[in-house]
Amino acid sequence: MEITQSTNQLGRVYQHMSPERLVLVVGLCGLLAGVMGIQLAQDVHWIRFFDNLHWTSGTLMAAMLAWLGVRAAEPGHAGGLRWIAIGLSAYAVGQIIWDIQVLSGYHGFVSPSDLFYIWLGPCVGAGLLLDAFRLADPVQRKTLLLDASILAIAATTLILVLYLPRRGELPLLSMAMMVAYPASLFSAACIGLIAAPTLRLKFSWSYWLFLGSLLVMGVCWMLWNSMALDGATTDGSWFNSLFSFSAMGMGLATLVWNFEPTRNVRWERWSEGFLRLLPLVAIVVSGFAVLLLNSHDGAPMAVSYTVNVGALLVVVLAMFKQSLLIRDHELLKSLSRNLEESEQLNYLILNAMPDLIWLKDAEGGYRMCNPAFERFFGARESELMGRTDYDYVDPEMARFLRQHDLEAMLAGNPVKNEEWVRFADDGRRALLETLKTPLCDRNGKVLGVLGISRDITERDRASRHLALVDFALNHVKEAAYLADAEGFFTYVNDEACRALGHSRDELLTMRVTDVDVECTRPDQWQAQWNDLKSLKTVTFESRHMAHDGSQFPVEVNANYFEFSGQAYVLGLVRDITERKQVEEQIRNLAYFDSLTRLPNRRLLMDRLGHALASSQRSREFGALLILDLDNFKTLNDTQGHDVGDRLLVEVARRLSASVREQDTVCRLGGDEFVVVLEGLGPDEQHAATQAEMVAEKVRQALNQPYSLSLNEGKFHGTTSIGLTLFRGQESSVDVLLKQADVALYQAKDAGRNLVRFFNPAMQAAIDSRTVMEAALRRALDKGEFRLFYQPQIDQYGVLIGAEALLRWQPPGQDRVSPADFIPLAEDSGLILAIGQWVLDTACAQLKDWENDPRTRSLQLSVNVSARQFHQHDFVESVQHSLVSSGINPARLKLELTESVVLDNVDVVVSRMQQLNALGLSFCLDDFGTGYSSLSYLKRLPLDQVKIDQSFVRDITEDPNDAAIVKAIMAMCRSLGLQVIAEGVETQAQRDFLLQNECGIYQGFLFCGPVPIEEWGRLLE
After folding, report:
1. Share of the chain above pLDDT 90, in %
2. What element of type H or E holds 552?
3. Residue 335 parent element (H or E)
4. What is the pTM of this model?
5. Label partner for 254 (CA 20 to 30 A): which of 224, 329, 514, 837?
6. Taking a C-beta distance cutoff of 8 angstroms, is the pair 968, 980 a contact?
7. What's the Cα-to-Cα distance from 384 to each of 433, 455, 638, rounded to whole Å?
8. pLDDT at residue 37, rounded to an integer
9. Is residue 462's pLDDT more than 90?
10. Cα–Cα distance, 1003 to 1009 (Å, whole number)
11. For residue 5, what pLDDT is reported?
């Protein structure tokens, strides 16, 4: 039956595997053609041709079928079949080489083809051994190797007996090759034969076809070599074709390879008997070989030794196997003892178990119990034997227990129930969980019931507590879940089900990674788990996905803990959608302009920084545009702020529509807007052209008429634009803004409504200012400033005071002109610290002059900048300098320029009055150079007016300057103000001023500004 099934299987294989069928058909055709050709051919050359044809066809077909079998085999068989296929392939290659030798007339032995023939036996043996080792346990492997070795040595000895006496003059190598052919094949066959009983293999026709073919080939080689040694002819179609058909049989067997064990009990008994008799069979074969050798009277002594050694090896290995069998028997006895000890140990374990364990027969009588059950009934096991429940508990409880026993026996499988009982030994009441299992014999007859009861009183209490916790968690507004180390949900509350839109059963089959959109991979969950394990508690934000695919932000408070040796994480999840909306509103207020909804200055700085970093990576140019609406202040003042706001909103809309989506439009404040252009290409000229085109497009769009109110007509506005390019991070964000701002003011200075690029000259000026600003800060820290003093002389030539003038002398460099660094100090704010230093130094100098009678009455004038004067604590800082130095305030005069009083005249007058109250006097410097001095002059508490040197320079030559000076002096006389003229350089200028009643002078005619070290020379 098995052969028929295998044949049907082979037919189905051929039907569905066209390559195998093709190889089989072609190979059989070649083989049969060769056999038939030998029968029909008359010429010896044709006979040899057909002989080689069927040999070659048979070996090639066997090799190809073997490789096809490897491809179709199960993974477990592939390794062994691959070795068999290698051996058949080597055999086929040897046959092809033999054909070539025949064609070339080579008939030597040993030949190249023999070197390939010899591979068949070892490769087949390796394949069979590999497949056998796959199924064998260590003992079976040992038995397999020993039995196969015994048979192989016996067979080899027999071959030597047949061959060695006939050797004659045959070379040793040729003789070894003759022995190796059948010996290697028989050795491989021995492995296969011994594997069958050792592993209890199924009777498979493919396996036995393989072994039969292998043995036939070995016998053929042995007979072939024997005839060759006797000098007999080896031609004959029936004998030679056995080589081809045996090779084909091996290839065909590998195609449907079946090498699996069976559970046939009879086969197991036969196998055991065969394996026990095998050493005896091997010894008989070896003895037969020795007897056969002795029949050859003229056998060489070396041959006798060889055969005797082989027979001795067989005997030794057989004895070794028997010793192993004896040892295995001793091991079995040891295992029996261990089994008894194990039963004793199991009995001890049974007695030590806290669970109640008992055994009843079918009638309800007790057959066995453990000590825990003895405590329950208050009786020993010996007392319980044969008794029933009615002997120890009340009838109602006994009927209850008997009923559950009968249910278990009728059900035929374990039955579980719970029952409240009271222990007899201490009266304790407990809840028992009882599992009753029916015991049956081989025929299915119920013999009794095995019962195991566990005290679950504490577990029941814990369950109630857990139910309470579950109830509490289901009444909180937060979603709660428990997850294990793999991320699977082990508990979820009602809120989690509601929030995620899944049922509880669905969630308990899911993982955290199925709902958390920011933790979707196992490695991400493992990283979070490791963090939780180390930190124990973590609060973080994430996003969860509901059943309908919607996502919502959540805040997760995750807590790691271990319970009963298992690790868990408890997650309390809060939906923070509303909070995120509030945060988004706050973010919009922080980063977006509330009127136009455009990014504000803060967000601009961030995006411009990103643009610089992106440009650094791509090496492409970008551009920064600053826009200012021309005459926007006029519109606000005339039409109102609401109209101005509508204009700003419309400008923002047009700006956004005029640039690309990836570009950034921001509102700096007021009517200033900024546009950041990115990705303008790597070519600077092309980028500049692109940026200018965008700027012109924006300017044209913003110049279109606006409809800002229903009552008014169209508003026509213009825009000035400053533009600068950038690439990489060579310039900072602040520098770029300054560059664009400079270009904007250039556009305004050129007439407005223009686009202007920032040029290198502007950059040079900015760099120079930056360097000088840093140098100014360093100069203030390192004391590089000094005060020079220029005398003030009255009409009689008497020294009445001096003006303190600031000078900057960097070490090792030329002196820096005040005209160069004073404006920068004003812009950068350093003028505040410098002005305070000047005031403190001047006060200290006045204090020194008090010690000299020649300078005790001199008055010292100090220049105060507009920014310094308008500081809210200026009065306090002056008062602090006066108090610290201890000078007479009347000797200190503060010189103010017209720029001080241009704005907030009321505040200026109030502050001057406070300083007057301290005893200080004021001088209005550079009088006549501004536009507002005359209107404010009468309101300011001034003591002195200084005529600017620009009028003094040409008073003797320019009638206009002379007239202006006369008018100033006349006005000052009428207001009771003292007049001082600066820049007096000639005697003619001094005489003109004296004639017009100006009695105080300052200029190079008398002395230029000098350091305090040279002041003594002036006094002399």
Report:
1. 13
2. strand 551-563
3. helix 301-352
4. 0.38
5. 224
6. no
7. 22, 21, 114
8. 56
9. no
10. 9
11. 46
